[in-house]
Backbone:
């Protein structure tokens, strides 16, 4: 026995080919939106992880450090004490770093670099090694002699593993100069970073330029997805309050405003593209529903004559449109989820953008995945398409005069 | 006995590009419960127009229409839909069954619009089909039925809803004489056995021989 739902379902399959094409268009829109959302989400997470791995989720700096020009003004004095205070406030992993403008030299050549002395927790250090170490090793914690250089920088200085490397840091507060042994070569995605990167241990950096000091303390939280970042909003002011005077705490957004802006653009961009996909599919749905209404004008006239009021007729038309859209959405959704599932193990997109990608922190591997929000927004679009596409035909159907409609010939 | 349907001084004028065509000119008529009445007259005499106005499918230019003691000519579109749903059964010349529904589902359609439960509407529809000798064909779609069978399903659809009156517009016009006669007999039986009030338009002389009363229309007026 039928009800209005099954009547609508049978009606949409009267013209199988036309309905299949229309449902297919909605299905394609759902498929592309889901894959697109998951791809952008994966890119977002990749950029987020790359960025926060290098600058931390939060960063302690001296206040107004961007305005300061002198090395000594950038120093966080008593860095160990500040770090210890932070350790009582949060479980986040900490990286203490001292950045020194310096001149590095081999036997015959020299280059200006930003020498970084840092001390990383084992987990972050291991990740850094896995990502960037090409040969040799990173200087161990407390190692006062080892230095690692970007491979391009090492080539420019004409030094190889085991060779001596000399560092000059004039105008600093430590020894100001030191001789080291090249223990590691690093490769970075972008050439610019590779030609100006030099790493020593924090202890060696402090001995060289600023005993007991650091220029930044990074806090790394166990977030792997951009969506988890929202938790920082409440945490940041709490931690900032625990810092002494002259220090400030900034988020990765404040540290890298250009990339933060890109993140802010991504979400509306996705919605605009999804709107375009569904807008085009919606036009097909309007066409199908309206043609179907036109062909069945006499039938609608009879239905109205038998006592279906404007509300019921509207519901019948809307139901047909929704069923058409949602059946397409179901197929497109399942295909989309299968595709995303198949690509969730990750695939390389490095060849798409080459070396330039690294400069913008783009990930080399993309792991597709979906959030509940992505599925909700896609289904929301499909539902809205069904409702909006039905609006005009439903109005036409609801306003039919039964006597005129029953006389209608297409 | 109070009339189930009454019209008073009813006129209907169709306007197309400022040209006025009167279809009804001051028709007054009463139909009483249990009557089996025919509206007779040549094509263009206003039979269908009068049926449409009496069934609340159209609005008169002037005059009054009363159904079951309620004046209906001034009702809104939604009120008229509701009134038709609960009070009037229709049988149309071209059967007008819904092609994607079976005979049983077509017969139960009005009850579905009323929101009746599935079992109740299925029982009533089956009973109506049985009365018209269509029970065995209940699962067939309209395109699997002959014209006469389709028209019997259309009568069953009107019957299932147990309306105050069934209005039939030229119900035998598309049927051969044998099928047409059989349908008339079915309607007559329903009228006798269940007391259902029928009012139909026709110019079929076989049908006119079997009615209680004939109302003749000529040029939009009741002929003397």
Residues:
């Amino acid at each position: 026995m039928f009800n209005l739902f099954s009547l609508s379902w049978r009606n949409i399959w009267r013209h199988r080919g036309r309905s299949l094409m229309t449902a297919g268009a909605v299905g394609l829109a759902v498929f592309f939106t889901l894959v697109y959302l998951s791809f952008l989400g994966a890119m977002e997470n990749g950029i987020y992880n790359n960025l926060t791995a290098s600058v931390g989720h939060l960063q302690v700096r001296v206040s107004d450090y961007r305005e300061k020009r002198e090395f000594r003004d950038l120093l966080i004095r008593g860095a160990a004490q500040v770090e210890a205070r932070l350790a009582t406030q949060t479980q986040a992993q900490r990286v203490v770093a001292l950045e020194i403008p310096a001149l590095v030299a081999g036997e015959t050549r020299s280059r200006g670099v930003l020498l970084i002395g840092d001390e990383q927790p084992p987990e972050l250090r291991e990740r850094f090694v896995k990502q960037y170490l090409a040969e040799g090793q990173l200087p161990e914690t407390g190692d006062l002699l080892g230095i690692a250089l970007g491979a391009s920088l090492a080539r420019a200085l004409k030094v190889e593993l085991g060779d001596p490397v000399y560092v000059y840091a004039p105008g600093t507060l430590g020894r100001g100069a030191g001789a080291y042994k090249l223990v590691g070569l690093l490769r970075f995605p972008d050439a610019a970073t590779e030609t100006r990167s030099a790493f020593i241990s924090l202890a060696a950096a402090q001995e060289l330029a600023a005993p007991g000091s650091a220029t930044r303390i990074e806090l790394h939280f166990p977030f792997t997805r951009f969506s988890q970042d929202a938790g920082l909003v409440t945490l940041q002011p709490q931690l900032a309050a625990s810092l002494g005077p002259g220090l400030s705490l900034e988020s990765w957004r404040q540290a890298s405003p250009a990339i933060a802006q890109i993140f802010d653009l991504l979400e509306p961009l996705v919605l605009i593209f999804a709107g375009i996909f569904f807008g085009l599919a919606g036009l097909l749905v309007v066409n199908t529903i309206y043609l179907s209404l036109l062909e069945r004008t006499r039938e609608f006239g009879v239905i109205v004559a038998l006592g279906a009021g404007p509300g019921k007729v509207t519901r019948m038309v809307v139901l047909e449109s929704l069923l058409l859209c949602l059946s397409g959405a179901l197929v497109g959704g399942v295909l989309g989820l299968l595709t995303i599932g198949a690509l969730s193990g990750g695939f390389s997109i490095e060849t798409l953008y080459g070396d330039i990608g690294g400069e913008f922190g783009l990930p080399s591997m993309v792991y597709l995945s979906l959030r509940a929000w992505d599925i909700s927004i896609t289904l929301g679009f499909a539902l809205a398409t069904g409702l909006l596409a039905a609006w005009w035909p439903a109005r036409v159907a609801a306003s039919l005069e039964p006597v005129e409609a029953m006389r209608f010939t297409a | 006995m109070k009339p189930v349907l009454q019209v008073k001084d009813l006129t209907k004028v169709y306007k197309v590009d400022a040209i006025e065509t009167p279809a009804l000119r001051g028709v007054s008529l009463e139909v009483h419960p249990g009557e089996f009445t025919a509206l007779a007259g040549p094509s263009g005499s206003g039979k269908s127009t009068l049926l449409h106005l009496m069934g609340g499918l159209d609005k008169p230019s002037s005059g009054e229409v009363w159904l079951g003691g309620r004046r209906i000519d001034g009702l809104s579109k939604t009120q008229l839909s509701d009134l038709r749903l609960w009070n009037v059964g229709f049988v149309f010349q071209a059967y007008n069954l819904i092609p994607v529904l079976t005979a049983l589902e077509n017969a139960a359609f009005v009850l579905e619009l009323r929101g009746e439960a599935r079992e109740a509407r299925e029982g009533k529809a089956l009973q109506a089909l049985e009365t018209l000798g269509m029970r065995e064909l209940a699962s067939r779609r309209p395109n699997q039925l002959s014209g006469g069978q389709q028209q019997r399903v259309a009568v069953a659809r009107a019957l299932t809803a147990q309306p105050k009156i069934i209005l039939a517009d030229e119900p035998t016009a598309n049927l051969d004489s044998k099928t047409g006669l059989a349908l008339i007999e079915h309607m007559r039986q329903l009228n006798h056995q269940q007391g259902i009030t029928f009012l139909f338009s026709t110019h079929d002389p076989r049908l006119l021989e079997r009615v209680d009363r004939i109302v003749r229309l000529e040029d939009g007026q009741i002929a003397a």
User: Anything to note?
Assistant: The mean pLDDT of chain B is 91. The longest helix of chain B spans residues 177-194.
